[in-house]
Amino acid sequence: MKIIVTGSLGHVGKLLTQQLVKPGNEVGVITSSPGRKGAIEAAGANALIGSLKEADFLADSFAGAEAVFAMVPPNFGEFDQVNYYHRIGGNYVTAIKKAGIKKVVHLSSIGANLEKGTGFILGSHRVESMYDEELKDITIVHLRPGYFYTNLNNFADVIRHAGFITANYGGDDKMVMAAADDIADAAAEELTSGSAENKIRYIVSDDRTGNEVASALGEAIGKPGLKWITSTNEQMKEGMGKNGMPAEIVDLFVEMGGAIHSGEIRKHFDETGPHKSGKIKVEDYAKDFANIYGHA
User: How would you classify the pairing of strands 67-70 and 103-107?
Assistant: First the structure.
């Protein structure tokens, strides 16, 4: 089976590629970095070097493939994030149609059912809608993972200097969380399945409050009793702005955090559950965080 993986060898892409090549599939990995060619080939896949901004390149890369793992990689250099998602999603649609792809496994997000108030996640909503409307004769699986564990890595410096975690969400807010390993497992299963069912699949590794997460991280890094303090929107904006982040990007982070804090982002998840739980729990990821924190 020929399968194309987008997203290069990122947190999910690397693990997914390693899984897909084992059964003897022909796997192509799209990357914009020529420097990744050696690592991709060492993993047993073909390196397809080019830009997601070029629909013709994507169509050529997809040619002859049966399935595509489609994700829009983060790009904080883009001024209009939602439009960025829309443009890359549109390029995927064009290429998928031209190449005659039969199945698309789309990396979306929890909260992608919402039409407003979710920050960056609105981009995933737009792409889901585009695929559903324009790829009606193709099997579409939308993977909706929760909050990536790897996002916790951004708090390492805050913990070191302030002694606590802070954001406009967390504290007693319950958070659906997802590990890259569990996302890769779900993506590999859907890509290689013979099922032609269109569906939404939530990916949840753990479901814990911010303070429970902080406690687990604290135990792992030798700071028992670590707390997650919920800030106001204004405090979060001020803190992120001091780091030189563009106001437009800050606003999206704050809006997304507000949707986590209100619980709006997880309503559909809760209404459609229970959902299959992954294997990587917060305490498991805390060990990886400790390694990162040690080098922060």
Answer: parallel
Q: What's the pLDDT at 296?
A: 58
If you search the block for the tokens 């954001």, which residue do you land on? 167
The pTM (predicted TM-score) of the whole model is: 0.95
Structure tokens at 184: 């890769």
Contact 78, 120 (CB under 8 A): no
pLDDT higher than threshold 90 for residue 124: yes
Query: What is the spatial distance between Cα 123 and Cα 112, in angstroms, rounded to a whole number?
Result: 8
Residue 151's Cβ-side half-sphere holds a number of Cα atoms within 13 Å equal to: 17
Max CA distance (Å), the chain = 55
Give the H or E element holding residue 293. helix 282-294
Quick one: CA torsion of 251, 254, 260, 265, rounded to 10 degrees? 0
Q: Minimal CA–CA distance to 103: which of 77, 52, 71, 65?
A: 65
